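Input record, target 12 of the design panel.
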């Protein structure tokens, strides 16, 4: 199976997903767990805030009772880039596995809870379910971009009912939507659309996952579509004989028009392929045809082009981006249709959608208003791109990973040492705001692969998770000293300019500074950035910023993960930065105040031409380092005129010399991530403390993102140009 097809088709969990990524033994385990259990309590596992953050709280006791002991719990769902299937890891806090993800884009989401890769269960507190996937739950995030997916006002929508009919193979059923005000007899009949699901989909998925009823109801209420009957049927009923039986049953049961000009057919995935094949081989049956991510390109005979063009009023093709398995197929199809002289329309490449329900919902919204009426717009949807050629990442094993395309699609690949693995993911900061998601990889020969994206221009870090064990991508030469299993890469672009390397020879210098730690009783190291043109003999000493890391990190992190050198280099060359020296010391100390003031600062002053004036000294840090900076401010007010804390709270208001802080501090600037930053509640509480004390401070406002480097890089970008200018 190719990399792309994993994201498009194997987003299923349970038996379907496991069949591609697990052994038969693992499949058997998942099957045993397929029956949903009643809720142990009424407390919802999922809460969605008005600002689109999803909070998950899964009782550990429930997990233990239903799947046994587990070492990890994830929420699997369509949270990944291009709405791909991904795993969001929860953290065990007391008796609950919990986590916050967001802000999520408006739309429909589906998910299940899984422990230790294979032990999946349904959220028993969520009544919204997926008929074809008993373990899945759904939730809807409202917003303008998803307005067609919202429920129509009560009593204003159409009606969905089952239709049972007989075929040569027995009795079958379909679902039928009739428009508001549908009249069963009298007057002119209704045109009809047959909407087919794919091989891996069920008829009910059009409702549970595609929100087709909501789309039809809303478009109908807006007067955007012609009144029609819509028949939802699965892939098994789309062969010629059974489709004929279905059409007869619809004609017998509903007030529909039977002539080809009032017949339309469309489908998603394999359903789109079969709709297209039916139209091309028997063009006198349907006048309107749509293929949403069709996975096969049927043969096109030039000799049939004239008849096809005469009979078809609309043939419109849709595809997602390169993560859609239909991407290359659609390209080949457009070329074949063009060579054969068959007239068609192409909606363009959906830049942010893969081969999944998010994309097919958009396809349906575009397709429906074009049916049974004349329209003036025959071009692609807004923001959709051209389909210039097939997508083919380098053959497995031929290039270091990850492989990054110009438009932000990233192909991850393992080495050949995991042929016996059962579950392999890439854990990366690819969720909204830079939170971490685990994207499943699929087998590709003796390796595992996945293409993810598009990713926004920025700096990314990741590690491989092989059967729940963190593994370094050994083909990526980047290293993170404090996290040996991590690797990094940059997606270039205008928004990531400050994180990119400046041209060789134009930036500042980073060098090691060894100092004796009287607190630790050993020699330690700091990294020091000096600006371009640093002159140790200039008349005026340089101002200095002491920049601290967080817990579990080290003095190397601001360079390896924070991109401090790149940020400072760019801002200096842009003329935004006061020439300064930046010292990144080791904050892992039992007494940071002594470590800083007795060891790091004196050594830096002896080694570099920096000022000892308080007005020319700044102290900042992230998380633990931010707390350390605020601790120095409390204990030695006025020692550093500029103080900043990233994702750290001030603490209690006892023993604080407010007057000394206000008189001795030119700028106290505070930063925090959004609700996904776990210090957010305590940080916001500390602002109240500062207000009550009367301490003057600046709050940058919430930085979108978690307790992670995406946030702290942005904090440094904001802070550095503000220093030593007052």
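The sequence produced for target 12 reads:
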């Amino acid at each position: 199976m190719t990399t792309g097809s994993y994201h498009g088709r194997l987003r299923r969990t349970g038996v379907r997903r496991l069949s591609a990524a697990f052994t038969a033994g693992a499949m058997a385990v998942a099957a045993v767990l397929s029956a949903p259990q009643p809720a142990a309590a009424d407390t919802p596992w999922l809460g969605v805030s008005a600002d689109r953050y999803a909070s998950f709280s899964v009782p550990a006791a429930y997990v233990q009772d239903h799947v046994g002991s587990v070492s990890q719990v994830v929420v699997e769902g369509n949270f990944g880039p291009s709405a791909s299937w991904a795993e969001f890891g929860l953290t065990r806090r007391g008796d609950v596995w919990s986590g916050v993800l967001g802000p999520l884009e408006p739309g429909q989401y589906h998910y299940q809870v899984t422990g230790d890769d294979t032990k999946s269960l349904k959220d028993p507190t969520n009544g919204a379910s997926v008929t074809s996937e008993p373990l899945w739950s759904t939730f809807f995030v409202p917003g303008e971009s998803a307005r067609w997916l919202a429920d129509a006002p009560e009593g204003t929508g159409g009606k969905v009912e089952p239709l049972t009919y007989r075929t040569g193979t027995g009795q079958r059923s379909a679902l039928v939507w009739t428009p508001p005000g549908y009249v069963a007899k009298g007057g002119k009949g209704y045109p009809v659309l047959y909407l087919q699901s794919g091989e891996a989909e069920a008829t009910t998925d059009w409702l549970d996952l595609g929100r087709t009823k909501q789309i039809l109801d809303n478009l109908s209420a807006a007067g955007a579509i012609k009144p029609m009957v819509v028949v939802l049927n699965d892939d098994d009923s789309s062969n010629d004989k059974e489709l004929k039986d279905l059409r007869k049953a619809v004609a017998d049961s509903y007030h529909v028009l039977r002539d080809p000009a009032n017949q339309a057919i469309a489908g998603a995935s394999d359903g789109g392929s079969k709709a297209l094949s039916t139209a091309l081989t028997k063009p006198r049956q349907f006048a309107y045809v749509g293929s949403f991510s069709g996975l096969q390109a049927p043969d096109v005979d030039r000799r049939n082009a004239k008849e096809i063009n005469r009979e078809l009023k609309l043939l419109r093709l849709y595809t997602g981006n390169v993560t859609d398995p239909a991407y290359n197929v659609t390209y080949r199809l457009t070329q074949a249709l063009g060579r054969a002289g068959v007239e068609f329309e192409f909606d363009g490449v959906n830049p942010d959608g893969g081969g999944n329900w998010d994309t097919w919902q958009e396809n349906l919204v575009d397709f429906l208003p074009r049916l049974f009426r004349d329209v003036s717009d025959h071009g692609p949807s807004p923001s959709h791109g051209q389909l210039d050629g097939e997508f083919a990442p380098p053959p497995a094993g031929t290039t270091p990973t990850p492989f990054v395309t110009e438009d932000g699609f990233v192909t991850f690949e393992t080495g050949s040492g995991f042929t016996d693995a059962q579950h392999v993911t890439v854990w990366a900061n690819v969720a909204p705001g830079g939170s971490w998601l685990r994207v499943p990889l699929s087998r590709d020969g003796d390796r595992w692969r996945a293409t993810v994206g598009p990713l926004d221009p920025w700096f990314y870090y990741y590690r491989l998770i092989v059967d729940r064990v963190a593994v370094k991508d050994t083909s990526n030469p980047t290293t993170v000293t404090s996290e040996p299993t991590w690797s990094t890469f940059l997606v270039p672009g205008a928004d990531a300019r400050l994180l990119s390397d400046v041209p060789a020879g134009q930036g500042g210098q980073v060098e090691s500074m060894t100092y004796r730690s009287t607190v630790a009783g050993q020699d330690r190291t700091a990294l020091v950035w000096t600006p371009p043109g640093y002159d140790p003999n200039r008349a005026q000493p340089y101002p200095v910023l002491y920049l601290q890391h967080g817990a579990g990190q080290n003095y190397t992190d601001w360079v390896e993960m924070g991109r401090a050198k790149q940020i400072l280099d760019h801002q200096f060359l842009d003329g935004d930065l006061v020439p300064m020296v930046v010292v990144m010391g080791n904050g892992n100390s039992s007494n940071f105040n002594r470590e800083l003031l007795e060891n790091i600062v004196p050594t830096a002053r002896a080694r570099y031409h920096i000022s000892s004036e308080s007005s020319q000294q700044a102290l900042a840090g992230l998380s633990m380092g931010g707390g350390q900076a605020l601790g120095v401010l409390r204990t030695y007010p006025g020692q550093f005129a500029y103080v900043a804390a990233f994702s750290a709270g001030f603490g209690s208001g006892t023993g604080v010399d407010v007057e000394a802080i206000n008189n001795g501090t030119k700028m106290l600037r505070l930063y925090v991530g959004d609700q996904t930053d776990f210090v957010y509640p305590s940080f916001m509480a500390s602002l109240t403390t500062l207000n009550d004390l009367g301490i003057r401070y600046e709050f940058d406002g919430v930085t979108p993102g978690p307790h992670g480097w995406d946030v702290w890089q942005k904090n440094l970008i904001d802070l550095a140009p503000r220093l030593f200018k007052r």
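The chain is about 25% helix and 25% strand.
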